[in-house]
Amino acid sequence: MYTLRQNRWMALLIGVLLVCFSAVCLLLQNEQSQKVQYSNEMDKLVAAKQTTDSFGSVNTAHKKLQKQSQISAKNSLQLVDGKKLNSWKIVQYPVVIKQLPASNSGQVLHQLKPKAAQASQAGKVKPAINYNPKLNSPKILYFSRTRLLSPSDKSQSTKQYTVSADDVLLLRKIVMAEAEGEPYQGKVAVANVVLNRLRSANFPDTIKGVIFQKFQFSPVANGRFKRVHPNQDSIHAVNEALNGIKSVSDDTYYFLSLTLADDLTVHNTRTYAKTIGHHTFYK
After folding, report:
1. Of 12, 64, 127, 187, whose CA is between 20 and 30 Å from 49?
2. Claim: this prediction has a pTM higher than 0.70
3. Better-scored residue on pLDDT, 40 or 49
4. Counting beta carbons within 10 angstroms of the beta carbon of residue 138, is it exposed (0 to 12), middle (13 to 18) or buried (19 or more)?
5. How far apart (Å, rounded) are the C-alpha atoms in residues 194 and 254?
């Protein structure tokens, strides 16, 4: 420090040297940053050029492929010559149809026709039903506490019911409406159900009341009951049921078609009795 105080010019010289050194450092740093920036820009330019070259090569290859495909298509078309097509010949082979002798064919047809007729008639013929022509509707029904009695057992009856012509007609119509396409035994069973309800204290005490009881017979609700006309099967089925012939037991009060019924309460709550045709009967 003493030396610096004595020689002031040396202090100035040292200061100048420090300033120059700092300036040189700054210049070197600036030059280095410019070199780095220049190097980055050159790298970008090189990458861009390579990308352009690659796209150009792709386009060139694509054009070459198009030209080759066009050339191959032309060559394939040239391979097909109209003259060669005309030179092709279609070979026709004779078809031989063997015919039966007239006598044999006539015999075959003669044998087939009766068989076809028999098959068609077999599909239309219904099983024969033995009606009793002398069986008519009784004037009075006889009931015990648990069953409908035949007229010959009327001495055991505890209840009687006088049958009117209207009652018989109503029975025939409800059987026709409910069981038109059902087996004959199914028709008798429908009449049995109506008469079982007539005997029971849980249902109305007249045939008309039983048939027209609300929500019991669907043909009454939908109008089919009024439109039907009883056929011979329905008439005889009612006559047999009124005379004590039964297809179901005396404690059978319900029936329904499981495929057509909307309400299956009976099926879910009642005891199964029997199935006849499409109808299932319940106690």
Report:
1. 64
2. no
3. 40
4. middle
5. 9
> For every residue of the chain, which 3-state class applies, written as one string?
CHHHHHCHHHHHHHHHHHHHHHHHHHHHHHHHHHHHHHHHHHHHHHHHHHHHHHHHHHHHHHHHHHHHHHHHHHHHHHHCCHHHHHHCCCCCCCCCCCCCCHHHHHHHHHHHHHHHHHHHHHHHCCCCCCCCCCCCCCCEEEECCCCEECHHHHHHCCEEEECCHHHHHHHHHHHHHHHCCCCHHHHHHHHHHHHHHHHCCCCCCCHHHHHCCCCCCHHHHHCHHHHCCCCHHHHHHHHHHHCCCCCCCCCCCEEECCCCCCCCHHHHHCCEEEEECCEEEEC
The 10s digit of each residue's pLDDT in 217-275 is: 999 999 999 999 999 999 999 999 999 999 999 999 999 999 888 889 999 999 999 99
User: What residues pair up with 149 in beta bridges, in sequence order?
Assistant: 142
Distance CA 177, CA 159 (A): 29
Contacts of 137 (CB under 8 A, 6+ apart): 163, 168, 238, 239, 242, 243
Q: How far lies 146's CA from each of 196, 222, 230, in Å? A: 9, 32, 29
Query: In this structure, are strands 254-256 and 148-149 parallel, antiparallel, or unpaired?
Result: unpaired
Give tens-digit pLDDT for 85-133: 455 555 555 555 455 454 444 454 445 455 544 544 544 455 667 777 7
- Cα distances from 282 to residues 24, 121, 146, 199, 238, in angstroms, run 118, 36, 16, 16, 20
Structure token digits, residue 270: 């009642």
Would you state the torsion angle of the CA atoms of residues 242, 247, 250, 251, taken in this order, to the nearest 10 degrees? -140
List the CATH code of the domain at 140-282. Answer: 1.10.10.2520
